[in-house]
Structure formats: structure tokens, C-alpha cells
Amino acid sequence: MKQLIRRLARTVATGGLMALAGVFVTLTASAQTPSAAQHAKPTVVLVHGAFAESSSWDGVIRQLEAQHYPVIAAADPLRGVKSDAASIASIVDSVQGPVVLVGHSYGGSVISTAAVGKSNVKALVFVAAFAPDAGESAADLAGKFPGSTLGPALAPPVALADGGKDLYILRNRFRDQFAADVPAAAARLMAATQRPIAEAALGEPAGAPAWKTVPSWFVYGDGDKNIPPAAQAFMAERAKSMKTVVVKGASHVVMTSKPDVVARLIVEAASR
Q: What are residue 149's phi and psi, to 5 degrees?
């Protein structure tokens, strides 16, 4: 009888271990599922523009990560199109697998240059952004159509040790000029953390653009006071945009005020 009891105890113990092992395997597989899904999707590289910084993408990042997209919010140096594009191109080179490059404002000029010759860049998304042709600058395109009020909203340039100048938007003009549809408290934070752009960067001519060979998507607000909506419509049509979304009443920072709209377009580009 004692031997029978011992055999039953061993059987229960073994079964319990096997059950625990089964639970462990199930939990491990469950933990790996998001990672597997993540690696099946392209990496989204977000590039901010002038007077902004990487946190301007926070709402978009939350939505993309909820759908298991790997995301990198790059720090754009804002020193010059060619040098900034080289910095972003290095990030693209570090990514294994396909990439969707997304640029806001001046960041559009940067991604269009950074993507040239990069076979893993499958799509470009321009978010209230410049998409210059060869020889064009951001300043050229902003002045091509009436509507930009950026000039009078700029603070006196900050002189740099190398002889260059940095540009900021005046704090008391920031919300109206840049982020009119963002809550006042959030706009104050954005004004305080804005990153300056080198004055020369806005006048630097772009090289050959990637949008001539890489499919592109455009989204912008019809309340944009930095880049005239007419200029953005012109650039989208010229680039043969796969889809152009115009957000009624949205400001220049449409990715901050309407992250759902922007994230949806990025997912559409990534899914093509």
C-alpha cells in the first residue's frame, strides 16, 4: 500500500511539473508574439522640423506602438539639409528591414534627401512638410504662395560662434503661429522646448529628391501659418502623392493636434 501511495505521489508531482511547464511555454510564446509581430512591420523613423523636437510625435508614437510598429523619433540637428540628411541616413542604415520615413516641416526636406539610394526605404510621409525639388530651398517654397506669416513671428537671430545664426519663434507668438489648435498649456511647453534652426538651413538648396522614386503620402492642415496650404498642395501634386489628407482647421503641428489622423496615414503607407 505504501508503495502504491508513493507511485501516485510521483505521478501527481510529475503531472504538476508538466502542467507548470505547459504554462511556462504558453507564457513565453505569448510574450514573444508582439515581438514577432513587430519584426514583421517596417520601422517608422520620425523626423521633426524647425522649432519642434522629438516629443512633438508623442501622440503618433503611442498609436503606432499600440499596433506593434517599431518607432524611432530621430533628433534632427537642424543645421543644414545635406548634413541633417546624412545624420538621418545613418539611422536608416542601422535599421534591419524596411523603413517608412516621416518628416515634419523642414524635416520633409531632410527625409527626401536622406532616402536617396536607400533601398530599404519603402515610403515617405510628409507631415505639413516641404518636399523640395533639386535646387529648391524651404525658403523658396514657403514664399512660392502667399499665406506664411512666419517671418514677423521670428525672434531676433541668435549669433553663433561660427558666424551663423539660429532662429526661434517669439514665445508670445508661438501658439498663434505654430500650434493654434494645441491646448495653451501644451503650446507653452512647446515654445519653451523649441529647437532652433540654423538660418542658412532654410536657404540651402536641396539635392535630387527621393520622392521622385519612392512612393509618398502627404497630410497637412488648412490652418497652417508656416507653410501655406497652397504650397503643400502644389508639392503633393508634383510628387504624385499616393494620398493627400487635408485636416480642416489644423495648424502647422498637425501631428501633435491630430495624432490619430497622422498615425492612420503612416500605417496606410507602411501597409502598402
A: -115, 20
Distance, CA of 262 to CA of 245 (rounded, Å) = 9
The model's pTM is 0.86
- Indicate whether 80 and 25 sit together in one domain: no
The parent domain of residue 12 ranges over 1-40
3-state secondary structure of 219: strand
d(CA 29, CA 32): 5
The predicted-structure confidence for 170-196, as pLDDT tens digits, reads as follows: 999 999 999 999 999 999 999 999 999
Q: How many domains does the chain have?
A: 2
Signed CA dihedral, 244, 245, 246, 252: sign only: negative
265 and 150 share one domain: yes
Classified as helix, coil or strand, 39 is helix
Judge if 6 and 65 occupy the same domain.
no
